[in-house]
């Protein structure tokens, strides 16, 4: 299958692109610079020069959205300067590449407005073709503001929930993707949980980093809140299965385990020989920033019954604490390895 990956220079998109290439797919990836193109080429991925559509009139937009896959990065897709005509031309190159592909995977994490425009443009380009479009969302759309408290709520793929306002735009994109199945697009959504593994930037990294900032491994409130997690290797296997067997209009969860944040902090403290510390939400914002503090105080528990049943996906990695003690994590705490 000829697959275009939008976000192939990011954490999730890059891992997905490399995995698909090893499975015999012909993979192309969006590159907005010569440097990005060289990196993709070195990994056996054919680069496509282009970019996503910028804001109307060239105005900048705040990201302000935490609903993407935790640990991902923008993937080198936003912030290109140029005239409106130049920007349109760069996105038209992406649309042309999508037209040549059998499937498009959108794994970028740009600002919400760019995401809305890009996804709408790609779906319009694919309408009536029967081609596959996979949108990478995240279980952050399910987040609850808990202040570090435990939540009994755990959501399956199509369970109803109350959306946090900051995630409303991402949920709207999800719905537009699923609705495109009615326009003869084999469109589907994958929501990874908190992603861990080599190169991640998730909760473990943040809690190790809190030691450098405060001298202790930190959590918020009681620290009983939890965010369902998944290893990057299991994520990429799910993408491959979704390409092969996913149903048009479907939503799939990539989640494998969960652990309260206080337990993570205690494991980090044991590794570094330091103490733990509880933070108020205000203190958490000072340590991790407003968005990081919100995420570390929230709960996003979910399950994957449809994903496991329809696709036969079974995660191989379920214990995020196996990463405790990795040198790259210890370095975040300014501790010797």
From TrEMBL:
Entry-linked Pfam families: NmrA
Name recorded for this polypeptide: Nucleoside-diphosphate-sugar epimerase
GO molecular function, one term: aldehyde dehydrogenase (NAD+) activity
SUPFAM superfamilies: NAD(P)-binding Rossmann-fold domains
Gene Ontology CC: cytoplasm
Residue ranges, annotated region (Disordered): 45-85
Annotated NmrA-like domain residues: 3-137
Residue ranges, compositional bias (Gly residues): 73-82
InterPro entries: NAD(P)-bd_dom_sf (IPR036291), NAD(P)-dependent_oxidoreduct (IPR051783), NmrA-like (IPR008030)
PANTHER family in the cross-refs: NAD(P)-BINDING DOMAIN-CONTAINING PROTEIN-RELATED (PTHR48079:SF6), PROTEIN YEEZ (PTHR48079)
